From TrEMBL, chain A:
Pfam families: Pyr_redox_2 (PF07992). This is Oxidase. Keywords: Oxidoreductase. Residues 41-61 are annotated as: Disordered. It comes from Acrocarpospora corrugata. It comes from the Bacteria. Signal peptide: none annotated.
UniProtKB/TrEMBL annotation, chain B:
The keyword Amino-acid biosynthesis does not apply. This is Proline dehydrogenase. The lineage of its organism: Bacteria, Bacillati, Actinomycetota, Actinomycetes, Streptosporangiales. It comes from Acrocarpospora corrugata. One of its GO terms (molecular function) is iron-sulfur cluster binding. Keywords: Oxidoreductase.
Length: 456, 81
């Protein structure tokens, strides 16, 4: 069967688009590698863990001393906005647990359980955490902020008992609040940015932030601005971190050490562009320098029949992603947009741009690198090897990769891509990955490869 | 459904049904389960969503499985990759 529309990614953007298109009368498939709907923001625990239960009291119990953290955590009730998105999916074919590894023009969508074909495609594959290297960042116990959040939301497991939360951006607040409410001792939030007054222009967002701040206050979690975790220490696991006051360029001024068994660290997000780039969709730059899929005001990409929505088109949070999805859905069905959607989207987009301004990533993180600090976790490329390659004349990202091999391992540069590009003084180029996900040789043998893996 | 166990390198690990192998190991205090090729550094969960490939392990003989994405099933035999 050929679908009228295949939506890849069941986060707020993909769910909103699929629901809108189905209500407009299209036959829609919604595909996601996860077994549950929701994507990152609306991540649900599986039903066996109590996900999807609408319970009266979603609050978490605080832990007793001898209780294990895991026993205590119950699945919270799903948010109402998630249930609304889910209920609008009536008539949509769900293909969950299906990892898409390639998309061909016309459109054949290959996933690890088979192939779907559709007249049109909507790509809503979201983003992943942006990380920068620092000494000790590869110790077990150091996780991305999103990873710690996914572990809690999807598995009801707290990343550690004494947790530091660090990096930059508003996302650190829900991460710290969630961990504290689930019973972890959060030793502090270390936010690199200092000036946040500009956010006052958005009272609704400010109120949301105040809610998290109240939770942090209740659990006595200090929130430090202008500070960063500059090193992690431990033999085989994280035991403590070095925290520094940093200046406007992020250079460390004064340091202290804090004991903790987990660190959740994130410096914003990187849009996932593998599939749109595979299809040849034009890319552009977001205001933070990230490569994003270029879309017009209907969320159409440069390739006829392909729309994109959500954080693949620019990082800006769940509300913006959902509005993107609604606009894309109406554009695909040719139905008129409900009143106010476009205005709300403009406002959410403007807020996203403001967040990029208020929570930038400054290059001062490079000062923390020592000769033996691992830059690429997969190929174990130390900073020294990057410097050696630069001394040999590798001035841009591409030649750095060819000479020192960062980004050539399993993750294909998803983790170190930002750092390597900034070390070369560039904004990260859009990814070129002919295969978006590792697949079996059987699947690969049946697939005509069009390009080689000379990823730049 | 009540809890069950998987086996990690001979050791029983409790699982709440629906949890991934990575989550169950992490909750049991096992935070690394492989070492890197070159420097022999320990690795466990990092990105938590299938992007970084730090968490690879072998499940019932199948190598290079991402622990953070793979839901545990009763009796799974898990070893380092
Ligand atoms: C790990 C992580 C945790 C986060 N947690 C929160 C949070 O708790 N609160 C918050 O405010 N923001 C959170 N965010 C920010 C989040 O990006 C946005 O809030 C929002 O979820 C973006 O919506 P989206 O629809 O664009 O993409 P997402 O919600 O990211 O959804 C994208 C979906 O696409 C799927 N996908 C990607 N590639 C493929 C493929 N090849 N094949 C099949 N499926 C694929 C993914 O499984 C995912 O479900 C998190 C981000 C990350 C990376
Ligand atoms: S923790 Fe990153 S892929 Fe599993």
């Amino acid at each position: 069967m050929k679908y009228d529309l295949i939506v890849i990614g069941a986060g707020p953007a993909g769910m909103a688009a699929a629901g809108t298109a189905a209500r407009g009368g299209l036959r829609v498939a919604l595909v996601d590698s996860a077994a549950q709907l929701g994507g990152q923001f609306h991540r649900q625990p599986p039903p066996e863990l109590g996900g999807g239960n609408v319970r009266d009291d979603p609050t978490h119990e605080r832990l007793g001393r001898d209780q294990s953290i895991e026993q205590a955590i119950q699945a919270p009730a799903p948010r109402r906005d998630f249930l609304r998105l889910r209920d609008r999916l009536t008539g949509v074919d769900l293909h969950l647990g299906c990892r898409v590894w390639a998309v061909e023009p016309s459109f054949a969508v290959h996933h690890d359980g088979g192939t779907l074909t559709g007249e049109r495609l909507l790509i809503a594959t979201g983003a992943h955490d942006r990380v920068v290297p620092f000494p000790g960042w590869d110790l077990p116990g150091v996780m991305t902020a999103g990873g710690a959040q996914a572990l809690l939301k999807g598995n009801l497991v707290v990343a550690g008992r004494r947790i530091a939360v660090a990096g930059t951006g508003p996302f650190l607040l829900p991460v710290a609040a969630g961990l504290a409410a689930a019973g972890a001792r959060v030793v502090g939030v270390f936010e690199a940015a200092r000036q946040m007054g500009a956010l006052a222009r958005y009272p609704a967002k400010l109120a949301e932030g105040a809610g998290y701040a109240a939770t942090l206050a209740r659990y006595r979690v200090p929130y430090h601005r202008g500070q960063a975790v500059v090193a992690a220490h431990g033999a085989d696991e994280l035991a403590k971190v070095t925290v520094a006051k940093i200046d406007d360029g992020w250079r460390a001024i004064r340091t202290r050490e804090i004991e903790c068994d987990a660190l959740a660290v994130g410096y914003g997000f990187v849009p996932q562009l593998d599939l749109p780039v595979q299809l040849g969709c034009a890319t552009t730059r977001d205001s933070d320098g990230s490569a994003i899929v270029a879309v017009d005001d209907q969320m159409r990409t440069s390739i006829t029949g392909v729309h994109a929505a959500g954080e693949t088109t620019g990082v800006g949070g769940a509300e913006l992603a959902e509005l993107d999805g609604i606009i894309a859905g109406h554009s695909i069905t040719g139905t008129p947009l409900p009143d106010g959607v476009r205005r709300r989207r403009e406002r959410a987009r403007a807020f996203a741009r403001l967040l990029h301004e208020v929570f930038p990533v400054r290059d001062g993180w490079r000062d923390r690198l020592r000769a033996d600090t691992i830059v690429c976790r997969c190929e174990e490329v130390p900073y020294q090897a990057i410097c050696d390659a630069q001394a040999l004349g590798a001035v841009d990202t591409r030649s750095l990769k060819l000479l020192a091999r960062p980004g050539m391992g399993w993750c294909q540069g998803r983790m170190c891509g930002y750092a390597v590009a900034r070390l070369a003084g560039e904004d990260p180029p859009p990814p070129r990955r002919p295969i978006a996900q590792p697949i079996s040789l059987q699947n690969l043998a049946a697939y005509p490869l069009r390009s080689t893996n000379d990823d730049a | 459904m009540s809890g069950f166990e998987i086996v990690f390198s001979g050791r029983p690990i409790p699982v709440r049904p629906g949890q991934t192998i990575g989550a169950a190991l992490h909750a049991a205090g096992i935070r690394s389960w492989r070492t890197t090729r070159i420097n022999g550094r320990p690795r466990g969960l990092f990105c938590g969503i299938g992007v970084c490939f730090d968490c690879l392990l072998t499940v019932n003989g199948e190598p290079n499985v991402r622990a953070c994405l793979t839901v545990a099933r009763p009796g799974d035999e898990v070893t380092t990759s």
